[in-house]
Amino acid sequence: MNTPMTKFPADFLWGGATAANQLEGGYNEGGKGLSTSDMITAGTHTTRRRITLELEPGSNYPSHEAIDYYHRYAEDIALFGEMGFKVFRMSIAWSRIFPNGDDTEPNEEGLKFYDRVFAELKKHNIEPLVTISHYEAPFALSKKYHGWTNRQLIDFYVRYCETLFTRYKDTVKYWLTFNEINILTLPMGGFFGGAIPPQESSELGTGADNMQERYQALHHQFVASAKAVKLGHEINPEFKIGCMIAYMCSYPLTSNPEDVLLAQNKDNLTNFLCSDVQVRGVYPGFAKRYFQEQGIQLVIEEGDEQILREGCVDYYTCSYYSSTCVSADPDQQQIGGNMSMGLKNPYLKASDWEWQIDPQGLRWSLNNIYNRYGIPMMVVENGLGAVDTVEADGSIHDAYRIDYLKQHIEAMKEAIGDGVDLIGYTPWGCIDLVSAGTGEMKKRYGFIYVDKDNEGKGTLDRSRKDSFYWYKQVIASNGEQLEPSHVQELRR
Ligand code: BG6
User: Fold this and answer.
1) pTM of the entire structure?
2) What are the pLDDT digits (tens) for 53-106?
3) Which H or E run includes 463?
4) Is there a contact between 357 and 322 (Cβ–Cβ < 8 Å)?
5) Marked catalytic residue, from 65, 120, 127, 180
6) Can you list the positions of beta strands (E) in 134-286?
Protein backbone atom coordinates (compact mmCIF):
# COMPACT_ATOMS: atom_id res chain seq x y z
CA MET A 1 0.00 0.00 0.00
CA ASN A 2 2.82 2.33 0.93
CA THR A 3 4.73 4.13 -1.84
CA PRO A 4 8.47 4.57 -1.13
CA MET A 5 8.26 8.30 -1.88
CA THR A 6 5.81 9.10 0.91
CA LYS A 7 7.24 10.02 4.29
CA PHE A 8 6.02 11.79 7.37
CA PRO A 9 7.39 15.34 7.61
CA ALA A 10 10.53 15.56 9.79
CA ASP A 11 8.74 17.68 12.41
CA PHE A 12 5.64 15.48 12.54
CA LEU A 13 4.01 15.62 15.98
CA TRP A 14 3.72 12.04 17.29
CA GLY A 15 2.02 11.60 20.63
CA GLY A 16 -1.10 10.48 22.46
CA ALA A 17 -4.45 11.86 23.62
CA THR A 18 -6.48 11.93 26.84
CA ALA A 19 -9.21 13.95 28.58
CA ALA A 20 -9.26 15.21 32.16
CA ASN A 21 -12.50 13.55 33.25
CA GLN A 22 -11.42 10.15 31.96
CA LEU A 23 -7.92 10.37 33.43
CA GLU A 24 -7.40 12.65 36.40
CA GLY A 25 -9.65 11.53 39.24
CA GLY A 26 -9.21 13.77 42.31
CA TYR A 27 -12.71 14.97 41.48
CA ASN A 28 -13.15 16.92 44.72
CA GLU A 29 -9.53 17.76 45.49
CA GLY A 30 -7.62 21.01 45.16
CA GLY A 31 -10.76 23.14 45.31
CA LYS A 32 -12.30 21.51 42.24
CA GLY A 33 -16.05 21.85 41.78
CA LEU A 34 -18.32 19.10 40.47
CA SER A 35 -18.22 18.72 36.75
CA THR A 36 -21.04 17.44 34.51
CA SER A 37 -18.93 14.33 33.89
CA ASP A 38 -18.76 13.64 37.66
CA MET A 39 -22.50 12.94 37.58
CA ILE A 40 -22.34 10.04 35.10
CA THR A 41 -22.29 6.47 36.43
CA ALA A 42 -20.42 3.50 34.97
CA GLY A 43 -22.14 1.29 32.40
CA THR A 44 -21.07 -1.53 30.11
CA HIS A 45 -21.32 -2.37 26.42
CA THR A 46 -24.92 -3.47 27.00
CA THR A 47 -25.95 -1.33 30.02
CA ARG A 48 -26.27 2.40 29.53
CA ARG A 49 -24.48 4.89 31.78
CA ARG A 50 -26.81 7.06 33.87
CA ILE A 51 -26.63 10.79 34.39
CA THR A 52 -27.86 11.72 37.88
CA LEU A 53 -28.84 15.14 39.14
CA GLU A 54 -27.46 14.37 42.63
CA LEU A 55 -24.56 12.11 43.55
CA GLU A 56 -26.14 8.81 44.58
CA PRO A 57 -24.45 7.03 47.48
CA GLY A 58 -23.30 3.55 46.44
CA SER A 59 -23.24 4.30 42.70
CA ASN A 60 -19.98 4.00 40.78
CA TYR A 61 -18.92 7.29 39.16
CA PRO A 62 -15.78 6.44 37.21
CA SER A 63 -14.49 10.01 36.83
CA HIS A 64 -14.09 10.37 40.61
CA GLU A 65 -10.91 8.35 40.74
CA ALA A 66 -10.44 7.58 37.03
CA ILE A 67 -6.80 6.40 36.79
CA ASP A 68 -5.61 8.77 39.50
CA TYR A 69 -3.44 10.81 37.13
CA TYR A 70 -4.05 13.73 39.49
CA HIS A 71 -1.51 12.11 41.82
CA ARG A 72 0.51 10.07 39.32
CA TYR A 73 1.01 12.48 36.40
CA ALA A 74 4.80 12.61 36.84
CA GLU A 75 5.15 8.84 36.48
CA ASP A 76 2.79 8.81 33.48
CA ILE A 77 4.50 11.68 31.69
CA ALA A 78 7.86 9.96 32.21
CA LEU A 79 6.44 6.94 30.38
CA PHE A 80 5.20 9.18 27.54
CA GLY A 81 8.71 10.61 27.43
CA GLU A 82 10.19 7.12 27.26
CA MET A 83 8.03 6.41 24.18
CA GLY A 84 9.42 9.58 22.62
CA PHE A 85 6.20 11.61 22.52
CA LYS A 86 6.60 14.99 20.84
CA VAL A 87 3.10 16.10 21.85
CA PHE A 88 0.55 15.19 24.52
CA ARG A 89 -3.13 16.00 24.07
CA MET A 90 -4.80 16.66 27.41
CA SER A 91 -7.75 18.68 28.56
CA ILE A 92 -8.18 21.06 31.44
CA ALA A 93 -11.06 20.40 33.83
CA TRP A 94 -12.99 23.68 33.74
CA SER A 95 -14.35 23.11 37.26
CA ARG A 96 -10.77 22.85 38.61
CA ILE A 97 -10.23 26.43 37.46
CA PHE A 98 -13.73 27.86 37.98
CA PRO A 99 -15.44 25.46 40.44
CA ASN A 100 -18.90 26.92 39.81
CA GLY A 101 -18.27 28.26 36.33
CA ASP A 102 -19.57 31.74 37.16
CA ASP A 103 -16.93 32.57 39.82
CA THR A 104 -15.22 35.90 39.28
CA GLU A 105 -11.78 34.65 40.38
CA PRO A 106 -10.06 31.44 39.30
CA ASN A 107 -9.03 28.72 41.74
CA GLU A 108 -5.27 29.13 42.16
CA GLU A 109 -4.80 25.55 43.32
CA GLY A 110 -6.29 24.27 40.09
CA LEU A 111 -4.02 26.48 38.01
CA LYS A 112 -1.01 25.29 40.03
CA PHE A 113 -1.86 21.67 39.25
CA TYR A 114 -1.59 22.39 35.53
CA ASP A 115 1.59 24.44 36.12
CA ARG A 116 3.10 21.26 37.51
CA VAL A 117 1.80 19.11 34.64
CA PHE A 118 3.23 21.51 32.02
CA ALA A 119 6.56 21.67 33.85
CA GLU A 120 6.76 17.88 33.81
CA LEU A 121 5.95 17.77 30.08
CA LYS A 122 8.66 20.34 29.41
CA LYS A 123 11.16 18.20 31.30
CA HIS A 124 10.52 15.46 28.73
CA ASN A 125 10.41 17.83 25.73
CA ILE A 126 6.74 17.14 25.13
CA GLU A 127 4.60 19.87 23.64
CA PRO A 128 1.15 20.17 25.27
CA LEU A 129 -1.93 20.23 23.05
CA VAL A 130 -4.75 21.47 25.28
CA THR A 131 -8.47 20.88 24.80
CA ILE A 132 -10.20 23.64 26.72
CA SER A 133 -13.50 21.78 27.12
CA HIS A 134 -13.59 18.03 26.62
CA TYR A 135 -17.12 16.80 27.27
CA GLU A 136 -17.55 18.64 30.53
CA ALA A 137 -18.47 21.93 32.16
CA PRO A 138 -18.92 22.90 35.81
CA PHE A 139 -22.08 21.14 36.96
CA ALA A 140 -23.25 24.31 38.70
CA LEU A 141 -23.67 25.88 35.25
CA SER A 142 -26.09 23.11 34.34
CA LYS A 143 -28.14 23.62 37.46
CA LYS A 144 -28.22 27.38 37.53
CA TYR A 145 -28.22 28.29 33.83
CA HIS A 146 -29.42 25.14 32.05
CA GLY A 147 -26.01 24.67 30.46
CA TRP A 148 -25.11 25.92 26.99
CA THR A 149 -28.72 26.69 26.10
CA ASN A 150 -28.08 29.90 28.03
CA ARG A 151 -26.13 32.62 26.23
CA GLN A 152 -24.39 33.63 29.47
CA LEU A 153 -22.24 30.53 29.13
CA ILE A 154 -20.35 32.32 26.35
CA ASP A 155 -18.99 34.88 28.80
CA PHE A 156 -18.14 32.29 31.44
CA TYR A 157 -16.26 30.24 28.87
CA VAL A 158 -14.39 33.25 27.50
CA ARG A 159 -13.37 34.27 31.03
CA TYR A 160 -12.07 30.74 31.57
CA CYS A 161 -10.16 30.91 28.25
CA GLU A 162 -8.68 34.28 29.13
CA THR A 163 -7.41 32.84 32.42
CA LEU A 164 -5.79 29.90 30.64
CA PHE A 165 -4.36 31.93 27.76
CA THR A 166 -2.81 34.47 30.10
CA ARG A 167 -1.44 31.98 32.60
CA TYR A 168 -0.04 29.57 29.98
CA LYS A 169 0.91 32.17 27.38
CA ASP A 170 4.49 30.95 27.16
CA THR A 171 3.85 27.30 27.97
CA VAL A 172 1.12 26.14 25.59
CA LYS A 173 1.05 26.83 21.87
CA TYR A 174 -1.59 24.37 20.57
CA TRP A 175 -5.20 24.73 21.78
CA LEU A 176 -8.54 23.18 20.82
CA THR A 177 -11.67 25.04 21.86
CA PHE A 178 -14.21 22.17 22.19
CA ASN A 179 -13.84 18.43 21.90
CA GLU A 180 -16.07 16.93 19.18
CA ILE A 181 -18.26 20.01 19.02
CA ASN A 182 -20.39 18.29 16.37
CA ILE A 183 -21.80 15.89 18.96
CA LEU A 184 -24.48 18.54 19.36
CA THR A 185 -25.75 17.67 15.88
CA LEU A 186 -26.77 14.25 17.23
CA PRO A 187 -29.96 13.69 19.26
CA MET A 188 -28.15 12.35 22.35
CA GLY A 189 -25.27 14.77 21.99
CA GLY A 190 -26.43 17.47 24.34
CA PHE A 191 -26.54 15.24 27.39
CA PHE A 192 -23.49 13.22 26.49
CA GLY A 193 -21.17 16.13 26.07
CA GLY A 194 -22.47 17.85 29.20
CA ALA A 195 -23.78 20.83 27.21
CA ILE A 196 -27.46 20.44 28.03
CA PRO A 197 -28.58 18.94 31.36
CA PRO A 198 -31.45 16.46 31.43
CA GLN A 199 -34.61 17.36 33.36
CA GLU A 200 -34.25 14.34 35.61
CA SER A 201 -31.78 11.55 36.35
CA SER A 202 -31.89 9.30 33.32
CA GLU A 203 -30.00 6.83 31.19
CA LEU A 204 -27.50 8.52 28.93
CA GLY A 205 -28.85 8.81 25.41
CA THR A 206 -32.50 8.29 26.35
CA GLY A 207 -33.61 11.77 27.43
CA ALA A 208 -36.12 13.67 25.29
CA ASP A 209 -34.40 15.55 22.48
CA ASN A 210 -35.15 19.20 21.83
CA MET A 211 -33.57 20.24 18.53
CA GLN A 212 -34.23 23.91 19.07
CA GLU A 213 -32.28 23.86 22.35
CA ARG A 214 -29.55 21.67 20.94
CA TYR A 215 -28.76 23.89 17.96
CA GLN A 216 -29.08 27.04 20.06
CA ALA A 217 -26.53 25.56 22.49
CA LEU A 218 -24.31 24.76 19.51
CA HIS A 219 -24.60 28.32 18.26
CA HIS A 220 -23.49 29.57 21.67
CA GLN A 221 -20.49 27.25 21.53
CA PHE A 222 -19.60 28.52 18.03
CA VAL A 223 -19.67 32.11 19.24
CA ALA A 224 -17.68 31.18 22.36
CA SER A 225 -15.11 29.32 20.27
CA ALA A 226 -14.73 32.22 17.81
CA LYS A 227 -14.33 34.73 20.65
CA ALA A 228 -11.70 32.48 22.22
CA VAL A 229 -9.77 32.23 18.95
CA LYS A 230 -9.73 36.01 18.56
CA LEU A 231 -8.78 36.61 22.16
CA GLY A 232 -6.09 33.93 22.10
CA HIS A 233 -4.42 35.52 19.07
CA GLU A 234 -4.45 38.89 20.83
CA ILE A 235 -2.80 37.42 23.93
CA ASN A 236 -0.21 35.52 21.94
CA PRO A 237 -0.12 35.77 18.13
CA GLU A 238 1.94 32.56 18.09
CA PHE A 239 -0.96 30.50 19.46
CA LYS A 240 -2.42 27.86 17.14
CA ILE A 241 -6.08 27.38 18.00
CA GLY A 242 -8.04 24.60 16.34
CA CYS A 243 -11.45 22.96 16.08
CA MET A 244 -12.08 19.32 16.91
CA ILE A 245 -14.67 17.24 15.07
CA ALA A 246 -15.77 13.62 15.63
CA TYR A 247 -15.39 12.70 11.97
CA MET A 248 -18.13 10.20 11.16
CA CYS A 249 -17.19 8.60 7.86
CA SER A 250 -20.35 7.29 6.16
CA TYR A 251 -20.43 5.49 2.81
CA PRO A 252 -23.50 4.97 0.64
CA LEU A 253 -24.39 1.28 1.07
CA THR A 254 -25.16 0.93 -2.66
CA SER A 255 -24.80 2.97 -5.84
CA ASN A 256 -28.48 3.89 -5.62
CA PRO A 257 -28.37 7.70 -6.03
CA GLU A 258 -30.64 7.98 -2.99
CA ASP A 259 -28.00 6.29 -0.85
CA VAL A 260 -25.31 8.53 -2.34
CA LEU A 261 -27.29 11.66 -1.55
CA LEU A 262 -28.02 10.42 1.96
CA ALA A 263 -24.32 9.87 2.58
CA GLN A 264 -23.50 13.37 1.36
CA ASN A 265 -26.26 14.81 3.49
CA LYS A 266 -24.97 13.02 6.58
CA ASP A 267 -21.43 14.20 5.87
CA ASN A 268 -22.70 17.75 5.53
CA LEU A 269 -24.95 17.84 8.58
CA THR A 270 -22.96 15.81 11.09
CA ASN A 271 -19.38 16.63 10.04
CA PHE A 272 -19.18 19.75 7.91
CA LEU A 273 -21.82 21.99 9.46
CA CYS A 274 -19.59 22.59 12.48
CA SER A 275 -16.26 22.79 10.72
CA ASP A 276 -17.65 25.12 8.05
CA VAL A 277 -18.62 27.54 10.80
CA GLN A 278 -15.34 27.15 12.66
CA VAL A 279 -12.98 27.10 9.66
CA ARG A 280 -14.81 29.41 7.25
CA GLY A 281 -16.68 31.55 9.76
CA VAL A 282 -20.14 31.17 8.20
CA TYR A 283 -23.08 28.79 8.40
CA PRO A 284 -23.24 26.76 5.15
CA GLY A 285 -26.34 26.90 2.90
CA PHE A 286 -27.36 23.33 3.69
CA ALA A 287 -27.52 24.21 7.41
CA LYS A 288 -29.91 27.07 6.73
CA ARG A 289 -32.15 24.75 4.71
CA TYR A 290 -32.01 22.09 7.44
CA PHE A 291 -32.96 24.58 10.16
CA GLN A 292 -35.89 25.75 8.05
CA GLU A 293 -37.11 22.24 7.33
CA GLN A 294 -36.84 21.23 10.99
CA GLY A 295 -38.50 24.39 12.27
CA ILE A 296 -35.36 25.46 14.16
CA GLN A 297 -35.22 29.21 14.70
CA LEU A 298 -31.81 30.18 15.95
CA VAL A 299 -31.44 33.31 17.99
CA ILE A 300 -28.44 34.90 16.31
CA GLU A 301 -27.73 38.24 17.93
CA GLU A 302 -26.40 41.25 16.10
CA GLY A 303 -22.66 40.96 15.89
CA ASP A 304 -22.59 37.15 16.16
CA GLU A 305 -21.95 36.69 12.44
CA GLN A 306 -19.02 39.08 12.57
CA ILE A 307 -17.62 37.28 15.61
CA LEU A 308 -17.80 33.97 13.72
CA ARG A 309 -15.99 35.49 10.74
CA GLU A 310 -13.27 36.96 12.95
CA GLY A 311 -12.69 33.78 14.94
CA CYS A 312 -11.74 31.23 12.28
CA VAL A 313 -9.49 28.46 13.57
CA ASP A 314 -5.85 27.97 12.55
CA TYR A 315 -6.01 24.23 12.03
CA TYR A 316 -8.50 21.37 11.82
CA THR A 317 -8.43 18.30 14.03
CA CYS A 318 -10.64 15.26 14.26
CA SER A 319 -11.15 11.90 15.85
CA TYR A 320 -11.42 8.92 13.55
CA TYR A 321 -12.16 5.39 14.74
CA SER A 322 -14.42 3.63 12.26
CA SER A 323 -16.87 4.02 9.39
CA THR A 324 -20.46 2.99 8.72
CA CYS A 325 -22.85 2.99 5.78
CA VAL A 326 -26.15 4.72 5.09
CA SER A 327 -29.04 3.53 2.99
CA ALA A 328 -32.51 4.60 1.96
CA ASP A 329 -33.62 1.03 2.70
CA PRO A 330 -34.93 0.94 6.31
CA ASP A 331 -34.37 -2.83 6.68
CA GLN A 332 -30.57 -2.82 6.72
CA GLN A 333 -28.61 -4.05 9.77
CA GLN A 334 -27.47 -1.38 12.23
CA ILE A 335 -24.02 -1.35 13.84
CA GLY A 336 -22.35 0.90 16.45
CA GLY A 337 -19.59 3.43 16.03
CA ASN A 338 -18.07 6.40 17.74
CA MET A 339 -21.02 8.62 18.66
CA SER A 340 -23.29 7.53 15.83
CA MET A 341 -24.96 4.33 14.76
CA GLY A 342 -24.87 3.42 11.09
CA LEU A 343 -25.22 0.42 8.83
CA LYS A 344 -23.01 -2.62 8.64
CA ASN A 345 -20.49 -2.69 5.81
CA PRO A 346 -20.09 -6.24 4.42
CA TYR A 347 -16.42 -5.56 3.60
CA LEU A 348 -15.32 -4.63 7.12
CA LYS A 349 -14.66 -6.41 10.42
CA ALA A 350 -15.67 -4.81 13.71
CA SER A 351 -14.10 -4.47 17.17
CA ASP A 352 -15.57 -6.20 20.26
CA TRP A 353 -17.59 -3.01 20.78
CA GLU A 354 -18.90 -3.26 17.19
CA TRP A 355 -16.95 -0.35 15.75
CA GLN A 356 -16.04 -1.28 12.17
CA ILE A 357 -12.33 -1.14 11.45
CA ASP A 358 -11.58 0.84 8.31
CA PRO A 359 -8.08 2.32 7.83
CA GLN A 360 -8.78 3.29 4.22
CA GLY A 361 -11.71 5.31 5.50
CA LEU A 362 -9.16 7.47 7.30
CA ARG A 363 -7.32 8.21 4.05
CA TRP A 364 -10.63 8.96 2.36
CA SER A 365 -11.73 11.22 5.23
CA LEU A 366 -8.46 13.17 5.38
CA ASN A 367 -8.64 13.82 1.64
CA ASN A 368 -12.31 14.76 1.87
CA ILE A 369 -11.66 17.28 4.63
CA TYR A 370 -8.41 18.71 3.28
CA ASN A 371 -9.87 19.23 -0.19
CA ARG A 372 -12.52 21.42 1.42
CA TYR A 373 -10.40 23.55 3.73
CA GLY A 374 -6.74 23.27 2.75
CA ILE A 375 -5.48 24.07 6.24
CA PRO A 376 -3.11 22.02 8.46
CA MET A 377 -4.71 18.99 10.06
CA MET A 378 -4.12 16.62 12.96
CA VAL A 379 -5.72 13.29 13.81
CA VAL A 380 -6.11 13.80 17.55
CA GLU A 381 -7.97 10.57 18.34
CA ASN A 382 -7.77 7.12 16.79
CA GLY A 383 -7.42 3.67 18.28
CA LEU A 384 -8.85 0.29 19.12
CA GLY A 385 -10.84 -0.26 22.32
CA ALA A 386 -10.09 -3.87 23.26
CA VAL A 387 -9.86 -6.29 26.18
CA ASP A 388 -6.25 -6.98 27.19
CA THR A 389 -4.93 -10.09 28.94
CA VAL A 390 -2.09 -9.83 31.44
CA GLU A 391 0.20 -12.89 31.19
CA ALA A 392 1.68 -14.61 34.23
CA ASP A 393 4.94 -12.67 33.79
CA GLY A 394 3.05 -9.36 33.59
CA SER A 395 3.47 -8.89 29.84
CA ILE A 396 0.57 -7.86 27.57
CA HIS A 397 0.68 -9.02 23.96
CA ASP A 398 -1.66 -6.61 22.20
CA ALA A 399 -0.88 -7.51 18.58
CA TYR A 400 -4.47 -6.57 17.59
CA ARG A 401 -3.86 -2.97 18.72
CA ILE A 402 -0.53 -2.75 16.91
CA ASP A 403 -2.18 -4.08 13.78
CA TYR A 404 -5.00 -1.51 13.96
CA LEU A 405 -2.66 1.44 14.55
CA LYS A 406 -0.14 0.28 11.95
CA GLN A 407 -2.82 0.20 9.26
CA HIS A 408 -4.08 3.64 10.23
CA ILE A 409 -0.57 5.09 10.22
CA GLU A 410 -0.06 3.63 6.73
CA ALA A 411 -3.33 5.26 5.66
CA MET A 412 -2.17 8.64 7.03
CA LYS A 413 1.10 8.26 5.14
CA GLU A 414 -0.86 7.70 1.96
CA ALA A 415 -2.97 10.76 2.68
CA ILE A 416 0.22 12.80 3.08
CA GLY A 417 1.30 11.39 -0.29
CA ASP A 418 -2.04 12.61 -1.67
CA GLY A 419 -1.08 16.11 -0.58
CA VAL A 420 -2.82 16.40 2.80
CA ASP A 421 -1.00 18.75 5.18
CA LEU A 422 -1.11 16.42 8.19
CA ILE A 423 1.03 17.73 11.04
CA GLY A 424 0.31 15.41 13.96
CA TYR A 425 -1.16 12.20 15.32
CA THR A 426 -2.26 11.56 18.88
CA PRO A 427 -3.86 8.11 19.27
CA TRP A 428 -6.61 8.01 21.85
CA GLY A 429 -6.12 6.79 25.40
CA CYS A 430 -2.34 6.39 25.13
CA ILE A 431 -2.65 5.22 28.72
CA ASP A 432 -5.70 3.09 29.65
CA LEU A 433 -8.48 5.32 30.92
CA VAL A 434 -12.23 5.38 31.50
CA SER A 435 -14.33 4.84 28.39
CA ALA A 436 -16.53 7.84 27.62
CA GLY A 437 -19.27 5.83 25.97
CA THR A 438 -19.60 3.01 28.49
CA GLY A 439 -17.69 4.19 31.58
CA GLU A 440 -15.72 0.94 31.54
CA MET A 441 -12.04 0.33 32.23
CA LYS A 442 -12.22 -2.95 30.32
CA LYS A 443 -12.39 -1.11 26.99
CA ARG A 444 -8.70 -0.28 26.76
CA TYR A 445 -6.85 1.81 24.19
CA GLY A 446 -3.49 2.32 25.90
CA PHE A 447 0.15 1.58 25.22
CA ILE A 448 0.36 1.68 29.00
CA TYR A 449 -1.75 -0.76 31.02
CA VAL A 450 -3.45 0.45 34.19
CA ASP A 451 -4.36 -2.18 36.77
CA LYS A 452 -7.99 -1.32 37.45
CA ASP A 453 -11.17 -3.17 36.51
CA ASN A 454 -14.75 -2.18 35.72
CA GLU A 455 -15.73 -2.36 39.39
CA GLY A 456 -12.93 0.04 40.29
CA LYS A 457 -10.67 -2.61 41.87
CA GLY A 458 -6.93 -2.85 41.23
CA THR A 459 -3.59 -1.43 42.31
CA LEU A 460 -3.61 1.35 39.65
CA ASP A 461 -0.04 0.24 38.83
CA ARG A 462 1.16 1.06 35.33
CA SER A 463 2.92 -1.39 32.96
CA ARG A 464 4.15 -1.38 29.37
CA LYS A 465 2.22 -3.36 26.73
CA ASP A 466 3.90 -4.73 23.58
CA SER A 467 2.39 -1.74 21.74
CA PHE A 468 4.44 0.57 24.01
CA TYR A 469 7.70 -0.75 22.55
CA TRP A 470 6.26 -0.81 19.06
CA TYR A 471 5.05 2.82 19.18
CA LYS A 472 8.39 3.91 20.57
CA GLN A 473 10.02 2.39 17.47
CA VAL A 474 7.43 4.05 15.21
CA ILE A 475 8.21 7.46 16.67
CA ALA A 476 11.97 6.95 16.65
CA SER A 477 11.84 6.03 12.95
CA ASN A 478 9.35 8.85 12.16
CA GLY A 479 6.77 6.33 10.98
CA GLU A 480 9.16 4.27 8.84
CA GLN A 481 9.45 1.13 10.99
CA LEU A 482 5.92 -0.13 11.37
CA GLU A 483 6.57 -3.87 11.50
CA PRO A 484 6.11 -5.30 14.99
CA SER A 485 8.63 -8.12 14.39
CA HIS A 486 11.21 -6.75 16.85
CA VAL A 487 8.81 -6.10 19.69
CA GLN A 488 9.99 -9.02 21.82
CA GLU A 489 13.63 -7.89 21.44
CA LEU A 490 12.67 -4.30 22.26
CA ARG A 491 10.85 -5.54 25.33
CA ARG A 492 14.10 -6.91 26.82
C1 BG6 B 1 -14.22 10.22 21.51
C2 BG6 B 1 -14.13 11.06 22.75
O3 BG6 B 1 -15.47 10.38 21.00
O4 BG6 B 1 -14.10 8.85 21.61
C5 BG6 B 1 -13.35 10.42 23.87
O6 BG6 B 1 -13.59 12.33 22.46
C7 BG6 B 1 -13.72 8.95 23.94
O8 BG6 B 1 -13.60 11.13 25.04
C9 BG6 B 1 -13.31 8.30 22.64
O10 BG6 B 1 -13.16 8.29 25.04
C11 BG6 B 1 -13.50 6.80 22.59
O12 BG6 B 1 -14.80 6.45 22.94
P13 BG6 B 1 -15.08 5.40 24.08
O14 BG6 B 1 -16.54 5.39 24.25
O15 BG6 B 1 -14.55 4.10 23.59
O16 BG6 B 1 -14.36 5.88 25.28
Assistant:
1) 0.97
2) 999 999 999 999 999 999 999 999 999 999 999 999 999 999 999 999 999 999
3) strand 462-464
4) yes
5) 180
6) 174-178, 202-203, 240-246, 249-252
